[in-house]
Amino acid sequence: MRWWQSAVVYQVYIRSFADGSGDGIGDIAGLRDRLGYLTELGVDALWINPWYPSPQADAGYDVADYCGIEPDYGTLQQAQDFLAEAHAAGLRVILDIVPNHTSAAHRWFAAALAGEPGARDRYHFRAGRGDRGQLPPNDWQSVFGGPAWSRIADGSWYLHLFAPAQPDLNWDHPQVRREFEDVLRFWFDRGVDGFRIDVAHGLVKAPGLPDRDTGLGMLDGAAHPAWDQDGVHEIYRGWRAVAREYDPERVFIAEAWVADSGRLARYLRPDELHTAFQFDFLRAPWRAASLREVADDAMAAAATVGAPPTWVLSNHDVTRTVTRYARSQPDHLVGTDWERKRWTREPADHDLGRRRARAGALLQLALPGTAYIYQGEELGLEEIEQLPDELRRDPTFAQSGFTDVGRDGCRIPLPWSGAAAPYGFSPAPVTTWLPQPPHWGSRAVAAQHDDPASVLQLYRAALRLRRTHWRGAGPVRWLDCPPGVLAFRRGELCCWVNTTGREVALPKNATVLLASHSTATETRLPPDTTVWLAAPEISL
Ligand code: GLC
């Protein structure tokens, strides 16, 4: 089995992981200092959100130079030293590539604005509609809200599926294709093990950029001329060939919000990408039937192309798991926009959410394939929903006309130690780039480190057992179990997940290896709890 087929990957949101320089912003120095924490946690690889020079119009997803390092985060030399240290510690490193759009500060866009001959062809520039060209060229809406087009001084319009500072590239242009293959090689030559591909389903647009007539929801799964066009696959066949120039082969993970797992599997054909996030898992409510349906569907679709399923409960774009699970659960898959708007109106029971998130983590880590952990999940952090409006940084807030608070609440700097902000995030008492809440001392790494009941210790134990017991244990075989419970066997081990509010009986002849909640016994599975059982034979 190759490493990426069963890896646990830890997502480092670098701006909020650890600050080494003391300016309240996370950086490479801070990350290097905490490599020991990550190896002790027991993950196999790191995925680092964009660390390139960027005006930060969208937290680094507006890249000005794909082959450099954002000065707030450090230098290229520090990045290379970090790569060497991570490898020496046994960790693989995946970077984040943003091919759908550049920053407006990228040299190509500057050339386009300056009217250099041919420079606009690398983007989507169009004349406007209306008698004076005063209307956008089509009806597409930006994912962050408002029209997906902005007008420049000479009256022409350019496309941006996200913020106006993120102009979309024209992937029909051969220079664009060549440039990104060179960017891949630039980092692969420096030892990077792979790339997470941002908006992997967006690069190719339908010819003629036809109207869609409704909003540009990234998560609603409906067909759209900007998403999941067949032409995108040719690009990834080229990228796979680049990955194969290296030994060991480099790997890709796609961020592709597509209509269903069948469409997702198309990105994972043997000559395309290696893995793709299975977002339905994080869109599923905390209900056994829904989780089982999503898991079955993901495993079946991945199997059709021989790819491992990839489980994700959280990331820097969605409400943290603890908070998603802290409110009443719908009976259908949810999109993140929907969640934010509805769930902030209902009071959150974070103790309940944390209890379910612990159980969810043991489900995630028992499934075959790869698993991603978003920084802070292992601390049981909740979404910080109450931020002063003037401190919010996510462009979603302004672009939605201040109706969608956006994603800042899951991007708060991590608490490491101490009872007051910055909780060891920065080496000195500074104001962090997003404020930390007053009650996070008890969630800090130092407070949880030696507490056997902590979320951190649960993750450490789970990752240890996963390595020795679940890895390579074979496919899921579902077991009979009461309604609201999910039970499966893989090899010698069974996983029982109780998503209900009442206790259920466990099978006889089983030994509990790990429980998400300490009140689990050899015979009883408490509410909202998962157990891993050593069960050579089971009788109910
Ligand atoms: C992806 C990123 C998100 C970013 C967007 C635009 O969805 O995960 O954070 O805002 O792409 O690049």
Comma- or semicolon-separated keywords:
single chain; about 550 residues; alpha/beta; TIM Barrel; Oligo-1,6-glucosidase, domain 2; Immunoglobulin-like; 3 domains; five-stranded antiparallel beta sheet; 15 helices; 18 strands; globular; binds alpha-D-glucopyranose; GH; O16G_dom_2
Describe the structure.
The protein is of the alpha/beta class and 540 residues long. It is built from 15 helices and 18 strands. It has an eight-stranded parallel sheet with strand order 9-8-7-3-2-1-11-10, with helices on one face. Strands 12-13-14-18-16 form a five-stranded antiparallel sheet. A hairpin with a 6-residue loop joins strand 12 and strand 13. Helix 12 packs parallel to helix 15 (455-470). The protein is globular, with a radius of gyration of 23 Å. The model has no long low-confidence stretch (mean pLDDT 94). The protein binds alpha-D-glucopyranose. Belongs to the glycosyl hydrolase 13 family.
